[in-house]
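Schema walkthrough. Field components (list of strings):
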Amino acid sequence: MFAYIHREIVPVEKAFLHVSDLSIQRGYGIFDFFKIQDGHPYFLDDYLDRFYNSASSMQLEVPHQRDELKNIIYSLIRKNNIAASGIKMILTGGYSADGYQPAEPNLIITQHNLTLPGEDQIKKGVKIITHEFVRDFASAKTINYSTGIWLINKVKESQAVDVLYHKHGIVSEFPRCNFFIVRNDNTVVTPAHHVLRGITRKNILRLASLKYKVEEGVVTLDDIASAKEAFLTSTTKRIVPVVKVNDTVIGDGKPGAVSFSLLDDLIALENEDYKLNAR
Amino acid sequence: MFAYIHREIVPVEKAFLHVSDLSIQRGYGIFDFFKIQDGHPYFLDDYLDRFYNSASSMQLEVPHQRDELKNIIYSLIRKNNIAASGIKMILTGGYSADGYQPAEPNLIITQHNLTLPGEDQIKKGVKIITHEFVRDFASAKTINYSTGIWLINKVKESQAVDVLYHKHGIVSEFPRCNFFIVRNDNTVVTPAHHVLRGITRKNILRLASLKYKVEEGVVTLDDIASAKEAFLTSTTKRIVPVVKVNDTVIGDGKPGAVSFSLLDDLIALENEDYKLNAR
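Field assembly_structure (string):
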């Protein structure tokens, strides 16, 4: 597997950063991640928009213009030649002279084999737990995941698959996924505030609006308890139905028709993007 | 200059981490920093206590027992042989297989030339600004400084030297320093909650208690406005008087007698530690 670092493509085994990098010194950096199928990165422009926005929010300059960056991405994809994969771009605060002041950012692009959610998770739905927390700079995709990683063992011990953040009972997001509920009248609702605006979240909102009433607004823990369906969304997971939150069973405890219908629509949208945009 | 990494001492120019390290992937790690004079690390046991505690809080295992770690530190100090310096120990989440799960932690120890605060800052005092924020895992010295670094430019533009965090007007700490006020009756007060328990903070509390009334409690922005003196403390800065917070002048706008007296006491305590414990 090859990676892009220090302005060249090298075997990933040789992709190193000096310890003065501000990601190592101060956890300072942003990133993004998108899916590839047979050489085609899905919804690439959406992910690049977000990457440049995260960089700008955190006062980091991406060392390449968009077209140049796209060329690097396509070169890496061709060189690695993996059918189903993901690409991660990390932009750090650079090699800091004093371990605090940002310097010229380092850009690292790596490609990874893709782990999709198991059939079983989609068919039966999953359990999640909740935790009181709000991310700093929630609208930027920073590399700060201390709380999410610190909670890994708690999630496992609870036999859950993920942890949903809330503040005073108002829900926001998972460490790496967005959250939706479906009300009894089939309205599809997702938290509007303190969330990373996921590309899958955006696609689901658009697809859902073609069939259902849609709301970006406030979702409380009480709203979840009285919801008909719930699901999480992410680039790699697409849609995974949530059937249990802590000890509360959602709806009838099984994945619902709206979740499955939107998953079908999302897969169709991916296929359409592939047909229209694959080089 | 030499550094310790991957269990050996190497020139710092050769100290690299692979990009799979969880500090680069997810900003996951802890660190600590202490001062050296002529081969003697001041208050080393206090700093090691905190380092092991931070690691344990963040579910990371330090790959060395305390005596072993001390031997490594002293070897590095002898090898570098710098009169006045600082040592930084960083412990990261390790080379993660999937960019999320922690692995065997990486320990990096680097030594740095020391920059003490200028005479002028101590004589005239400094201006600080405030910002609404509370650190996650405030009692652990994690590498997450996104907010502090993001605010660097705002601090500079305000012609201030640092930024004091508060939440709803209740003050906690600076990104890298603790904060004290001196009330009109000479009581020395420092925030008790949501702060990293600085070693200099601890020393100042002890020294102050020999002469003055001392409180670890709640400090509000209003308390600062009516304080007689204010100062910040840190390992490298010792005590720096604060004479202006945003546009509010503290006391008579000059550093006060209590601040200077405690600075003298701290320097005396450092000298005593040197005499008693230097190898």
